[in-house]
């Protein structure tokens, strides 16, 4: 089962961006994340559409924060990335008429819904500036933005 690491990766990028004095290019971000600049642009576009980052094309351009980290929550970024499920546990669908499978799936589904609601509520309470505490003097290495 593949995990979705977009939230943690974008939080990492946004906190680094907060420390920069210049925009970060898609290429620099891609290098830091070991991915393709096209993937970065597509992901960052969702954050731009929600007003968390801005982009400037051309020489000297790149991505910059559009709002302070103190005004952005984990939930904001989770939602901007497309509101994927926070859990990758799947329900069985091999015996859909079996009463035991139906009962098991219902129990798992109910617990996952409740757990996800609690987690997302907590995401609402955590701003990105809290995650960045202690990193103000963190030296960026050349591979990082």
TrEMBL record:
InterPro entries: Tscrpt_reg_Rrf2, WH-like_DNA-bd_sf, WH_DNA-bd_sf
GO molecular function annotation: DNA-binding transcription factor activity
GO CC list: cytosol
PANTHER family: HTH-TYPE TRANSCRIPTIONAL REGULATOR YWGB-RELATED, WINGED HELIX-TURN-HELIX TRANSCRIPTIONAL REGULATOR, RRF2 FAMILY
Protein name per its UniProtKB record: Rrf2 family transcriptional regulator
